[in-house]
Amino acid sequence: MAITLTTQLISPELIKVKAVVAQSSATTITLDQEPMMVQSVRVTAGAVGAGLYCVSDADGVVVPVGSEVGVCKIDGKVLTFSAGVTGAVIVYVTSASLLK
Q1: Where are the extended beta strands (E) located within 1-100?
Q2: Which of 15, 65, 76, 77 is least surrounded by CB atoms within 10 angstroms?
Q3: Where are the domains positioned within the chain?
Q4: Coil, helix or strand at residue 84
Q5: For the whole model, what pTM was predicted?
Protein backbone atom coordinates (compact mmCIF):
# COMPACT_ATOMS: atom_id res chain seq x y z
CA MET A 1 0.00 0.00 0.00
CA ALA A 2 1.23 3.49 -0.83
CA ILE A 3 -0.09 6.56 0.97
CA THR A 4 0.90 10.04 -0.13
CA LEU A 5 0.33 12.65 2.60
CA THR A 6 -0.24 16.37 2.23
CA THR A 7 -0.46 18.27 5.51
CA GLN A 8 -1.74 21.67 6.60
CA LEU A 9 -1.06 23.11 10.06
CA ILE A 10 -4.37 24.20 11.61
CA SER A 11 -2.97 25.15 15.02
CA PRO A 12 0.13 24.21 17.03
CA GLU A 13 -1.71 21.07 18.17
CA LEU A 14 -3.72 20.08 15.07
CA ILE A 15 -2.80 19.07 11.53
CA LYS A 16 -5.16 18.49 8.61
CA VAL A 17 -3.97 15.53 6.53
CA LYS A 18 -4.94 14.59 2.98
CA ALA A 19 -4.02 10.94 2.40
CA VAL A 20 -4.07 9.64 -1.19
CA VAL A 21 -4.14 5.83 -1.05
CA ALA A 22 -3.13 3.36 -3.78
CA GLN A 23 -3.16 -0.31 -2.81
CA SER A 24 -3.92 -3.83 -3.94
CA SER A 25 -7.61 -4.59 -3.57
CA ALA A 26 -8.49 -4.82 0.14
CA THR A 27 -11.55 -4.13 2.26
CA THR A 28 -9.48 -2.05 4.70
CA ILE A 29 -7.25 1.02 4.59
CA THR A 30 -4.85 1.59 7.47
CA LEU A 31 -3.90 5.23 7.98
CA ASP A 32 -0.51 6.32 9.30
CA GLN A 33 -2.04 8.22 12.24
CA GLU A 34 -5.23 7.82 14.22
CA PRO A 35 -7.65 10.56 13.16
CA MET A 36 -9.29 12.80 15.73
CA MET A 37 -11.92 13.63 13.09
CA VAL A 38 -12.47 12.43 9.51
CA GLN A 39 -13.58 15.22 7.19
CA SER A 40 -14.14 13.17 4.04
CA VAL A 41 -13.59 9.77 2.41
CA ARG A 42 -13.76 9.46 -1.36
CA VAL A 43 -13.10 6.10 -3.01
CA THR A 44 -11.56 6.58 -6.44
CA ALA A 45 -11.22 2.94 -7.50
CA GLY A 46 -12.18 -0.56 -6.42
CA ALA A 47 -14.95 -3.15 -6.33
CA VAL A 48 -16.75 -1.26 -3.56
CA GLY A 49 -17.67 1.51 -6.01
CA ALA A 50 -16.25 4.97 -6.46
CA GLY A 51 -17.90 7.82 -4.60
CA LEU A 52 -18.27 9.54 -1.25
CA TYR A 53 -18.45 7.61 2.01
CA CYS A 54 -19.65 8.63 5.47
CA VAL A 55 -17.64 7.27 8.39
CA SER A 56 -19.32 5.28 11.17
CA ASP A 57 -17.84 4.03 14.41
CA ALA A 58 -16.52 0.47 14.66
CA ASP A 59 -19.98 -0.91 15.51
CA GLY A 60 -21.55 0.56 12.37
CA VAL A 61 -22.67 -1.25 9.24
CA VAL A 62 -20.71 -0.77 6.01
CA VAL A 63 -22.72 0.13 2.90
CA PRO A 64 -21.39 0.35 -0.67
CA VAL A 65 -22.03 3.44 -2.78
CA GLY A 66 -25.28 3.10 -4.68
CA SER A 67 -27.94 5.69 -5.20
CA GLU A 68 -26.82 7.28 -1.94
CA VAL A 69 -23.57 7.95 -0.08
CA GLY A 70 -21.77 4.80 1.07
CA VAL A 71 -20.76 4.05 4.65
CA CYS A 72 -17.40 2.79 5.90
CA LYS A 73 -16.47 2.27 9.52
CA ILE A 74 -13.40 3.26 11.48
CA ASP A 75 -11.67 1.54 14.37
CA GLY A 76 -8.53 3.38 15.44
CA LYS A 77 -6.49 3.86 12.24
CA VAL A 78 -8.38 1.28 10.14
CA LEU A 79 -11.19 2.14 7.71
CA THR A 80 -13.33 -0.87 6.66
CA PHE A 81 -15.42 -1.07 3.48
CA SER A 82 -17.91 -3.66 2.17
CA ALA A 83 -15.66 -4.69 -0.77
CA GLY A 84 -12.16 -4.15 -2.11
CA VAL A 85 -10.74 -0.63 -2.43
CA THR A 86 -7.73 0.13 -4.65
CA GLY A 87 -7.74 3.93 -4.48
CA ALA A 88 -9.07 6.56 -2.07
CA VAL A 89 -8.61 10.09 -0.81
CA ILE A 90 -9.13 10.61 2.92
CA VAL A 91 -9.01 14.01 4.63
CA TYR A 92 -8.75 14.00 8.41
CA VAL A 93 -7.51 15.97 11.40
CA THR A 94 -4.92 14.49 13.74
CA SER A 95 -2.75 15.64 16.61
CA ALA A 96 0.49 17.29 15.54
CA SER A 97 2.32 15.06 18.02
CA LEU A 98 1.17 11.94 16.12
CA LEU A 99 2.49 13.06 12.74
CA LYS A 100 5.75 11.30 11.99
Answers
A1: 2-9, 14-30, 37-46, 51-56, 70-75, 78-95
A2: 76
A3: 2-95
A4: strand
A5: 0.88
Q: Looking at the chain, how many residues does it have?
A: 100
Q: How far is CA 92 from CA 13, 33, 96, in A?
A: 14, 10, 12
pLDDT in tens, 11-68: 889 999 999 999 999 999 999 999 999 999 999 999 998 999 999 998 988 888 876 7
Question: 98, 35 in Cβ contact below 8 A?
Answer: no
Single-letter amino acid code for the residue at 93? V
| Cβ atoms 5, 32 nearer than 8 A | yes
| 73: number of Cβ within 10 Å | 20
Question: Among candidates 20, 19, 24, which has minimal Cα distance to 1?
Answer: 24
